């Protein structure tokens, strides 16, 4: 009773918020603690722009996160990635000729030694396959995703790894990296204990959202049970062979049953705890919960299913306290921007380019959302309606929620009279005028220098010739002397 009361009181307290950088919205902290060591909850919706090659199939908003980037062993959650590899290869004839209807023969030698290869044989899950059973690829996928069948996982990995399970595991790692998983390493396809096999809640989110974009994966992973055709070797479970999903939240006979919950995958590891990835839908909203390393027992040693307790608490929290709200309307005027040279107008109003809606916690006051506006002011005409003129950043408690473009609410034409007047008035201050003046000064300096040089050369040409002094004994000197002393010659 005290525990219930404390939870109720906690829910009445306004939760603190933080921005989750992996999603596009805020994540909230509920008024209760989950038992799982790591957790992630998000709301996801179909992306209408899936025709773009690089567009994600789903858009999502993170609502809750705990240790979402801390590495843990995924257990049989690795089989989600294995299913993706199989389904993508089946849909690509260039890779191989197998499809979902291809019949494979179960080879028990592929998995008979698992109990000797693992420190925790109790972690092995089976779907009661017998050596020689003939089942389709699709049936093996059902067995793997619903029951965590180690037999189905190894048979599929061997077949789609071209006879090499390790090659298949390598392709899982490659595909995970392509999906943006930076902290994930797969070492086997069964999910059995291996300290080197690690991932995070955020990486599992990327893998699961991609898997959910595949129609056949959704059909299989969200199924409650699967009735299998009779195999060739012997009948199973009497006249019927039925696999039931290991997620007790999908079973009406379970105390954990929730009507809105579907699949997707559970995993148990003796050395770490219980893991689960599951989804629920209500009121048009889709929620995905990822929980890792929930304890097997409580403080008194009693067996517990804390991963399902946590998932149920998070779903009920979302169902009760969250709804989509308009945080910023696209018709809200957020000020004005001055317009230069506008025709009969010297300003234009600005508004958000689009409305911003988010899944909002009902105890968080929308009026407390801060609007930080950055705008280009002034701008020059002409301006067209919906031209971007700035941005508005939405913040709550100092943390960023979203950034949205601000656009002009109307068009503003250019006034040519104002434009040319401004051009003339501004010309003396322009850089071009400064450059022209500097260039003119340079030309004048060059011209003056050339004039000075020419004058010097001219003066040098006007200087008289210097007298030539002849040697006294030279013939020319003697002739000059005779001429100067002969009166007759001198008279002439």
Task: Describe, in plain words, how this protein is organized in 3D.
The chain has 492 residues and is α+β, with helices and mostly antiparallel strands. The chain contains 13 helices and 19 strands. The strands form six sheets. The protein has a six-stranded mixed beta sheet with strand order 16-18-19-14-13-17, with no helix packed on it. Helix 2 (78-90) crosses helix 5 (150-160) and helix 5 (150-160) packs across helix 6 (165-178). The radius of gyration is 42 Å and the shape is elongated. 35% of the residues are buried.
Class from helix and strand fractions = alpha+beta
Helix coverage percent = 25-40%
User: β content, as a range?
Assistant: 15-25%
Low-confidence stretches: 1-23
CATH architectural type of the largest domain: 3-Layer(aba) Sandwich
Tell how many strands the DSSP assignment holds.
19
Q: What's the number of helices? A: 13
Name the CATH superfamily assignment of the largest domain. DD-peptidase/beta-lactamase superfamily
Q: Tell me the strand order in the biggest sheet.
A: 16-18-19-14-13-17
CATH class of the largest domain: Alpha Beta
CATH topology of the largest domain: Beta-lactamase
Rg result: 42 Å
Indicate the mean pLDDT: 85
Distance between the termini: 155 Å
Gross morphology = elongated
> How would you characterize the largest beta sheet?
6 strands, mixed
| Number of structural domains | 3
């Amino acid at each position: 009773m005290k525990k219930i009361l404390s939870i109720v009181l906690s829910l009445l307290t306004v939760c603190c918020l933080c921005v989750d950088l992996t999603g596009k919205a805020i994540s909230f902290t509920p008024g209760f603690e989950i038992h799982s060591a790591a957790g992630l909850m998000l709301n996801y919706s179909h992306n209408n722009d899936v025709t773009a090659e690089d567009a994600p199939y789903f858009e999502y908003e993170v609502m809750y996160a705990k240790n979402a980037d801390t590495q843990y062993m995924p257990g049989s959650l690795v089989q989600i990635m294995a299913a993706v590899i199989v389904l993508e290869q089946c849909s690509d004839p260039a890779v191989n000729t197998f499809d979902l209807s291809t019949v494979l023969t179960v080879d028990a030698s592929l998995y008979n030694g698992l109990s000797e290869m693992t420190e925790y044989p109790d972690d092995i899950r089976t779907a009661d396959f017998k050596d020689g059973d003939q089942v389709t690829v699709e049936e093996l996928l059902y067995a793997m995703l619903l029951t965590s069948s180690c037999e189905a996982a190894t048979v599929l990995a061997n077949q789609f790894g071209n006879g090499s399970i390790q090659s298949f595991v390598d392709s899982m790692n490659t595909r995970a990296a392509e999906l943006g998983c930076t902290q994930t390493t797969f070492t086997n396809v069964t999910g059995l204990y291996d300290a080197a096999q690690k991932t995070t809640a955020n990486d599992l989110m990327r893998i699961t959202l991609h898997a959910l974009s595949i129609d056949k994966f959704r059909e299989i992973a969200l199924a409650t049970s699967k009735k299998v055709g009779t195999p060739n070797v012997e009948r199973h479970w009497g006249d019927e062979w039925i696999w039931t999903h290991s997620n007790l939240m999908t079973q009406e006979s379970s105390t954990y049953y929730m009507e809105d919950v579907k699949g997707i995958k559970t995993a148990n590891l003796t050395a770490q705890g219980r893991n689960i990835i599951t989804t629920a839908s209500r009121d048009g909203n889709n929620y995905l919960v990822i929980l890792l390393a929930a304890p097997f027992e409580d403080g008194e040693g009693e067996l517990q299913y804390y991963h399902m307790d946590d998932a149920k608490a998070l779903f009920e929290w979302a169902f009760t306290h969250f709804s989509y709200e308009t945080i910023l309307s696209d018709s809200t005027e957020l000020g004005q921007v001055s317009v230069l040279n506008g025709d009969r107008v010297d300003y234009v109003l600005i508004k958000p380019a689009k409305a911003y809606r988010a899944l909002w916690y009902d105890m968080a006051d929308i009026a407390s959302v801060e609007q930080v506006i950055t705008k280009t002011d002034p701008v020059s005409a002409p301006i067209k309606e919906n031209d971007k003129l700035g941005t508005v950043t939405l913040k709550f408690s100092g943390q960023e929620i979203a950034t949205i473009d601000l656009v002009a609410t109307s068009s503003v034409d250019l006034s040519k009279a104002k434009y040319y007047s401004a051009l003339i008035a501004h010309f003396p201050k322009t850089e071009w005028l400064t450059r022209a003046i500097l260039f003119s000064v340079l030309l004048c300096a060059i011209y003056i220098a050339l004039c000075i040089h020419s004058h010097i050369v001219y003066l040098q040409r006007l200087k008289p010739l210097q007298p030539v002094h002849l040697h006294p004994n030279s013939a020319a000197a003697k002739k000059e002397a005779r001429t100067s002393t002969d009166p007759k010659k001198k008279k002439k």
